[in-house]
Amino acid sequence: MPDVLDATPYDALLLLSFGGPEGPDDVIPFLENVTRGRGIPTERLKEVGEHYFRFGGVSPINDQNRALLDALRKDFADHGLDLPVYWGNRNWAPYLTDTLRDMVRDGRRRILVLATSAYASYSGCRQYRENLADSLAALEAEGLDLPKVDKLRHYFNHPGFLQPMIDGVLESLADLPDGAHIAFCTHSIPISAADTSGPVPGHGDGGAYVRQHLDVARLIADAVRERTGVDHPWQLVYQSRSGAPHIPWLEPDICDHLEERHAAGAPAVVMAPIGFVSDHMEVLYDLDTEATAKAAELGLPVRRSATVGADPRFAAAVRELIVERAATERGQQVTPCALGSLGADHNLCPVGCCPARTPRPAAAGADSPYA
């Protein structure tokens, strides 16, 4: 029997994700949820919806979350961590508010949240916290006793998140000509949002969002060099830009980068989606479809390396993060596990971290109204 691991004071883990449609009839309502309050016309939503319709109207993200839930529950059981795992989404069923209501009715009083976003940014962290605050406000209006909710720290530089990506890049390189370049891909965001990502003292020049991705890219590139003896050229690139064209977003775009690499004589490129936990729609369409088509047009050999998904090493990393955070909450001395130059990220988002353009309440941070 495994040793029993102590999750006290926590009595549940909530897997909090973005959500996605599970059939053609879900696509437009899902996109309306995602864009609520932005005044985006239905015709534009239908254009974006074509990305989903070409895959039967189904986003892969929900099945990938189900696989991650299974992996977490198996890992916890195998290692003696007695902690039930729930799942809630921001934009589609199972909705976050419904899941939190179920957790309260199940008697859960101290909840730890795992967001399926590894890096600091408004859309990747604070917006999740705002959604948590919205759901807690809804439960409070129903007269329910509110649980205390904390969020696991960003895990971009945890070995259990990095090792599957390192292996994925190595496997992709093995299938390409010598001298292949590596394009480390992540979601583009407005430069203004990047510059204000992370705690206030680090704002500017891409903020924590760019620094964290660059650190991960260096760690993977260094590991590839150590394993192969080859120093592959690499660059951090972006994808999935949306929004008004006059607003500056992080560049270069992956398709522009492929054109540049081809013009410069690169023999091949690995597209490594380090900014994404799983192969959801933006990986499936923007990389596997759009960028791969651009590479074929150029005659440039490319491979897309694997995301972490439900890899057992990632599930183990989540367990380690839970045990680490629980020990910290009990007042024990803890040495956090993190690689690279940035060290372990904060457990509690400070005031001014990844601010919204319009201030809104956010849970699980130093400025939480639900402390």
Task: Give the strand tally.
Answer: 8
Uncertain stretches of 5 or more adjacent residues: none
Q: What percent of the residues sit in helical stretches (DSSP H or I)?
A: 40-55%
Mean pLDDT over all positions: 96
Strand content of the residues, in percent? 5-15%
- Distance, first to last CA: 37 Å
Q: Trace the largest sheet across and list its strands.
A: 2-1-3-4
- Which overall shape is indicated by the principal axes computed on the Cα atoms? globular
Largest sheet: 4 strands, parallel
- Structural Rg: 20 Å
Main structural class: alpha/beta
Number of helices: 12
Give the ordered list of helices and strands.
EHHHEHEHEHEHHEHEHHEH
Describe the structure.
The protein has 371 residues and is of the alpha/beta class. 42% of the residues lie in helices and 11% in strands. The chain has helices at residues 27-35, 42-53, 61-78, 96-105, 122-141, 159-173, 191-195, 207-228, 254-263, 281-284, 286-298, 312-329, and strands spanning 12-17, 85-89, 110-115, 148-151, 181-187, 234-239, 269-272, 302-304. A 4-stranded parallel sheet has the order 2-1-3-4, with helices on both faces. Helix 9 (254-263) runs parallel beside helix 11 (286-298). The protein starts with 11 loop residues before the first strand and ends in a 42-residue tail after the last helix.
